[in-house]
């Protein structure tokens, strides 16, 4: 994905301590050394150990937000609040459905895709027990609302 909007595909990676790293693709095709992504407070983003990060325009703003899972099975949204070339992320918040927080059985690995072909982004989460959960977006493109998960 092109996290910084320069037309070149970049890489993001979670880490065991929980920080999220950004590897910028240079014009020559090589990747720059990884840098920790930070929130607007200047602190490194971290929503828990063994983070697994995915970038998608979850809120329909035209910017790639981060959807991040962790070792305890939680899934977080970290909104992209960038206004210029510098990447800036807002306050992380847990993803929920019907007022309940999403949590799978350990090692949450989220992926976002239009899984059912209805034009809205859905959430798919792999879990530490080997299960895969599908959370259908029953909201809209700018305000996702997730249905109960199913395997």
Describe the structure concisely:
By secondary structure, the chain is mainly beta.
Can you tell me about this structure?
There is one protein chain. By secondary structure, the chain is an all-beta fold. The chain is built from no helices and twelve strands. The strands form four sheets. The protein has a four-stranded antiparallel sheet, with no helix packed on it. The mean pLDDT is 94.
Q: How far apart are the first and last residues' alpha carbons, in Å?
A: 27 Å
Q: Catalogue the unreliable spans.
A: none
**What class would the helix/strand composition place it in?**
mainly beta
Order of helices and strands: EEEEEEEEEEEE
Q: Helical element count?
A: 0
Strand order of the largest sheet: 4-5-6-7
Mean pLDDT across the residues is 94
Radius of gyration: 15 Å
Form type: globular
Measured as a percent range, the helix fraction is: under 10%
How many beta-strand segments? 12
The biggest sheet amounts to: 4 strands, antiparallel
DSSP strand content: 25-35%
Layout: helices, strands, pairs:
Layout: E1 11-13, E2 21-23, E3 35-36, E4 52-56, E5 65-69, E6 75-78, E7 93-94, E8 96-97, E9 100-101, E10 109-113, E11 122-126, E12 132-135
Antiparallel strand pairs: 1-2, 2-3, 4-5, 5-6, 6-7, 8-9, 10-11, 11-12
Which characteristics define this entry?
about 150 residues; mainly beta; four-stranded antiparallel β-sheet; three-stranded antiparallel β-sheet; about 30% strand
């Amino acid at each position: 994905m092109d996290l910084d909007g320069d037309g070149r595909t970049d890489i993001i990676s979670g880490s065991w301590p929980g920080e999220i790293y950004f590897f910028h693709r240079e014009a020559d095709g090589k990747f720059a050394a990884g840098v920790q992504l930070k929130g607007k407070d200047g602190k490194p983003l971290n929503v828990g150990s063994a983070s697994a990060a995915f970038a998608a325009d979850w809120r329909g703003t035209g910017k790639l937000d981060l959807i991040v899972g962790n070792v305890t099975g939680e899934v977080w949204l970290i909104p992209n609040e960038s206004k210029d070339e510098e990447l800036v992320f807002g306050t992380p918040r847990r993803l929920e459905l019907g007022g309940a927080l999403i949590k799978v059985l350990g090692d949450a690995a989220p992926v976002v895709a239009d899984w059912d072909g209805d034009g809205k982004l859905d959430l798919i989460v792999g879990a530490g027990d080997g299960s895969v959960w599908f959370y259908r977006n029953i909201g809209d493109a700018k305000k996702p609302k997730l249905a109960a998960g199913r395997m």
